[in-house]
Design brief:
The structure is a single chain. The protein is of the alpha+beta class and about 270 residues long. The protein contains seven helices and eight strands. Helix 1 (about 5-15) crosses helix 2 and helix 1 (about 5-15) runs parallel beside helix 3.
């Protein structure tokens, strides 16, 4: 999936309008490409902005019958002249026309029609914002992006930015993104194994001489996914590793278990 295809799903996600299949595809793509979260944030902000400026009042379903009733009872043409005649010469007013009460099917049909129009309106608004570049920047400035996602964007834009992906022990994948010039490493993982409340994941820079330097601890998110910026500076030749340690991290300053992720960068 490319970013344009993802953006189409993102618009539907902002409206909570994705099918279960599309939602699963969207979440998988976002987990694999956390740097695309800016698209999701922009769509969410656009929905919020449109909601604030668009009146939520809909015309009543009985509007047509009300108008017909007023037309039927209002003096028209020669009938208006009879208002000055004696009451006995004035023809009785016709019974106002009234629509039958709307059925549940009618209400649902109107709701679906309004929702569909709203969906197309939002899609058009999103295309307009992206196409002319108006509002997108200011909307992004309103949103807080994590340090890890910001660093990931910086690494991908860096001339020496690189990445490598490996399988995680017991399933899942992990990708390290690094830039020597920036001295940063971001770990993107999916399908990490479940750990107990007394355990945590810890990241490591393993130097050429075998020394391990902690890069911080983290807890995996939904489906074992995470995007984490390692604490500390990356050095050429480092191997990025992840171990499962006791809550709070290793107390010895070194890994106490076999790593479940090992990603060489050289």
């Amino acid at each position: 999936m490319n970013k344009e295809e993802f953006a189409e799903l993102s618009a539907g996600y902002a409206l909570n309008a994705l099918s279960p299949e599309d939602l699963a595809t969207f979440e998988m793509a976002l987990a694999e490409h956390p740097e695309w979260s800016d698209v999701v944030s922009t769509d969410a902000a656009t929905v919020a902005a449109l909601a604030e400026t668009t009146p939520s009042i809909a015309p009543p379903l009985t509007l047509r019958s009300t108008l017909l009733s007023k037309i039927a009872t209002a003096p028209q043409g020669e009938a208006a002249l009879t208002e000055s005649q004696p009451a006995e010469l004035v023809e009785p007013e016709p019974e106002p026309y009234r629509d039958p009460s709307p059925t549940t099917t009618t209400i649902q049909a109107v709701s679906r029609r309004n929702w569909t129009r709203g969906l197309f309106g939002l899609a058009a608004s999103l295309v307009l914002l992206v196409g002319i570049g108006v509002g997108a920047v200011s909307l992004n400035e309103m949103l807080n992006r994590s340090d890890a996602v910001i660093a990931l964007d910086q690494i991908e834009d860096a001339p020496d930015g690189q990445s490598a992906t490996v399988d995680v022990t017991d399933g899942g994948t992990a990708t390290a993104h690094w830039s020597e010039s920036l001295g940063k490493v971001v770990l993107v993982s999916n399908g990490l194994p479940e750990v107990t409340s007394e355990e945590t994941f810890e990241m490591w820079f393993v130097r050429d001489d075998g020394t391990a330097v902690s890069g911080g601890t983290f807890a995996a998110g939904t489906a074992g996914s995470t995007t984490e910026l390692l604490d500390g500076a990356f050095e050429r030749g480092d191997t990025i590793a992840v171990t499962v340690e006791q809550a709070g991290g290793s107390t010895t300053g070194a890994p106490t278990t076999e790593p479940i992720v090992v990603i060489p960068t050289a």
